[in-house]
Give the backbone structure.
Amino acid sequence: MSRIELVVIGGSAGAIEALRQILGELPGEFPAAVAVVVHLPADSPSLLPEIFERPDGPRMKFAEDKEPIEAGTIYFATPDYHLLIEANRTFALSQIDRVHFSRPAIDVLFETAAEAYGERLLGIVLSGANADGAAGLAAVAEAGGITAVQSLESSEMIAMPAAALQAAPDSIELNLSSLAKFLRAHGEPDVG
Amino acid sequence: MTAPVGDLEVRLLLEAIYDRYHYDFRSYAMASLKRRLAQACDQLNVATLSGLQEKVLHEPESFSTLLQFLTVQVSDMFRDPEFFAALRTRVLPVLATYPSFKLWVAGCSAGEEAYSLAILLQEEGLLDRSLIYATDINAQALRLAAAGVYEIARLRTFTENHRRSGGKSSLSDYYHASGESAIMDSALRRKITFSDHSLATDNVFSEVHLVTCRNVLIYFDSTLQNRALRLFDDSLVSSGFLGLGSKESLRFTESASSFEEVSRLERIYRKKSGLA
C-alpha cells in the first residue's frame, strides 16, 4: 500500500494548464483520492471535471457535501463554496467567509485535509496570483504530510508557489513533467 | 499533537453553550464549525477555545457575538434564480390545486427567501391563499427579517435575481426606499410569520405543503441532517415538496428513499406517498 491516501492540489491563474498536464498522466486506477481547488469566479460555469476527463483516466467529479472520499477519484471544489474535509474522511461544503478573497480557498481545503489525513497527505501548490495555499501547505507539512510546489520557472504566476515555498520551506520544487511523474510515483506501492 | 486538545475544547464549549443558552451546535459539521470558532476567538480577543468558553459563560453579551459566527448568514432575494423559476413552473401549479396551503422556510436568516416566496406567490395570484412560516435560531436575524428592511445597495442583486427567475412584475413594486434602506411592503410582511425554531432541538409545529431549507443542511453533520429531514418529512402533507440548496441533495442521507426528484438540478423533491 502507498503511504499517500489523499492528494490536495491548489492553484489559480495558470493552474488549469498545469492541471491538464499533471492530471493528464494519472492512470485510471490511481490508488489515492485527489481533491482540487482552483480559484474561479463564483458564477463561472461548472465545467472543471469535464475539461480533464479522459476515457482511460480516473473518475472526475465535483465533491458533494457528506460524500465519502474514495481512492481513484479526482474531486473538484464547486464554485462559491469552500471545500472541507471532516475527520471521518467525508467532504463538507460551506459558505463561510472568503479566505484571501477566495471561496473556495486552498487554505481551507489543505488545513482540514491535514487534520483528517496527517502524514497520509500530499499537498501541491501550483501557479497562482495570491498567497492562498501558503498557510495550508504549512499545515500539511506540520501534520507530517508531503509538500510540493510547482517550480517558479514553470509557473505562469509565481506569487502563489513562492508564498507556499516560503511558508513550507521543505517543499519539493518541481516543474510540471516532474510533478506529474512524482504524483504518479506516489500511486505506486512502497513510495514515500 | 495539539489536535485532540482542540477537539476536547470544542466539545466542552458546545456542551457549555447548550447547557447555558440552550443552543445546540453539538451536531454541526465540525470542520466548518472549528474555523468559525477560530474566527470568533480572534474577534473576541481570546487565545483558546477554553478562553472563549470562559468568556461566553461569564459575559452573556459575548454569546450573542459568538452566535453571529456560529450561524452562517449568506442569502439574497431570489438567490439561485433557477430554483425560483422551477418553483413557479413545477410546484406552484400543484399548490394552486389546494384551497389554502402553507410554506415553511427553515433557516430563514434575515428573511430574504421568505419575502422572495411571498413575491412569487403574489405574482402567481396565490398569496391570499397561502401562509408562510419562516424560522431560524438566530433572534437577531429574525428581528431583521420581521422588520423587512434591507440595505438599498443589495437591491441591485435582488432585482437581477428576480428578473432571472422569470419575475412577472418589478421588484420595486414590493418595497419602498427610505434613505439607505429598502422596506418590504407590509402586505407581504403580514403573510409571513417569523419565529424561533431549531432543527436540532424542536419538533414539528405545523403541516405544510412546501418546505425550503437551503444552504442550512451543509452546516449539519449526518445525524443532524437526518433529523432535520425527518422533521420535514413529518411536517409535509402527502406529496408535499422540499427544496434544498443548489449544492445539497438527499443522496448521502437516510431520507433519499422517502422523496422523489421533481427537478434534479434545482434540488426540488417531492415526498413519496403511500409508503410506510
